[in-house]
Amino acid sequence: MSPGPGPLDYRQAGVDIAAGEEAVARIAPLAATTWRPEVRGGIGGFGGCFALPPGRYQRPLLVASTDGVGTKLQVALAVGQLRGIGQDLVAMCVDDLVCLGAEPLFLLDYLAVGRLDPEQVAEVVAGVAEGCRRAGCALLGGETAEHPGVLPPGELDLAGFAVGVLEEGQQLGPERVRAGDLLVGLHSPGLRSNGYSLARAVLLERAGRDLRAPAWPGAPRSLADELLEPSRIYAPAVLAALRAHPGAVHAAAHITGGGIPGNLRRVLPPDLQGRVRLGRWPVPRIFEEIARLGPVEDPEMAQVFNLGLGMVLVVAPEAADAVLDVLRGADTPAQVVGEIRPGDGQIHLEGSWH
Questions:
Q1: 285 and 140 in one domain?
Q2: How far apart are CA 87 and CA 131, in angstroms?
Q3: DSSP characters for 18-47?
Q4: Considering the domain boundaries, does residue 5 fall inside one?
Q5: Is residue 50 situated within a structural domain?
Q6: Are residues 281 and 332 in the same domain?
Q7: Cα 327 from Cα 245, distance rounded (Å)
Q8: Which residue numbers delimit the PurM-like N-terminal domain (predicted)?
Q9: DSSP string covering 170-197, please?
């Protein structure tokens, strides 16, 4: 809206300070539900304070990660279902941390909006807080920025920044991986937060599907609900396995952009290869719909989507059953999906996922 003649204020320019203060008032109690004993202070200051857990680490190593939720936001905005994307944000950040073996300590969020709607902001942050509670980390602070002229009213973008800790020298990674290790795949009930540009191009643009219609003929829920399935947060279950069986897990790969091959390759030394047997785990139906309606060829599907695995652990063969028991006890379905062999530093997919 163009300002008229006379004195000009910030609100006329598109930024509502009062709405921002109301948003902070709504956010503060949500953040408080996530606080751990190490949190010092509260929401509203210029920074969040967090004391390292006393006595637990001789040489604490901090691990940091940052991520967003990508164009999954566009689906959420189209149907007005915003809470789940907060959990997605937490998953994207803390499940990167746990790939090194780090316990997530705290997270900060950054929310940019075209026009500040305190109710909309509170809905998103409520999802972030729920994700933090599930992950066991504190929502230590964040920023909500109103960007008129950059984002249209109703639009938003979301990013997160997480910090974790582990004992230096105990990092998971390629240097621990050995020939004969088994690959344990942790099931994902949906797309998580990756591949939505392709999924939207296929389902909404090319196929013209209605987000509020059944996800496929006879589906028990809508396409929107299927696409907005919140990302499972794996960090607590993986940490439980690490603590129950020290040394059993050698590496972990968070299956995000790049799919199973692109992410699992990141934890391989150059003289080993991974063999993944497709078809050993349940693949959510939504992937079949995307492949069929695109059509999208199998190599592209494998490169873009997780195909039903949100994380893969590289585990000593003698400990695989014990690790699986811990994961399943933590309500995280998982199974052996392949192994590590001498080879070329690549991931080889065998069989078919559908």
A1: no
A2: 4
A3: HHHHHHHHHHHHHHHTT--TTEES-TTSSS
A4: no
A5: no
A6: yes
A7: 12
A8: 62-165
A9: ---SGGG--TTPEEEEEE-SS-TTSSHH
Residue 218: half-sphere exposure toward Cβ, Cα within 13 Å: 1
342 three-class SS:
strand
Residue 116: beta bridge partners?
none
Say what the pLDDT of residue 3 is. Answer: 56
- Asked if residue 148 and residue 182 are part of one domain, the reply reads no
Asked if 108 and 125 touch (Cβ cutoff 8 Å), the reply is no
pLDDT of residue 44: 72
> For residues 323 and 245, is the Cβ–Cβ distance under 8 A?
yes
Question: Which residue's entry shows tokens 């013209």?
Answer: 208
Report the alpha-carbon distance of residue 342 to residue 271 in Å, rounded: 6
Number of domains in the chain: 2
Query: Both 67 and 143 in a single domain?
Result: yes
Q: Report DSSP state, residue 203.
A: I
Has residue 92 been placed in a domain?
Answer: yes
The CA distances from residue 1 to 11, 13, 16, 147, in Å, are: 11, 8, 14, 14
Q: Are 47 and 142 in contact (CB under 8 A)?
A: no
Length of the chain: 354
Is residue 22 located within the same domain as residue 163? Answer: yes
pLDDT block averages, 10 residues each, the chain of length 354: 64 72 80 91 82 89 97 96 96 98 97 91 95 97 90 93 97 98 97 96 97 96 97 98 98 96 97 97 97 97 97 98 98 98 96 93
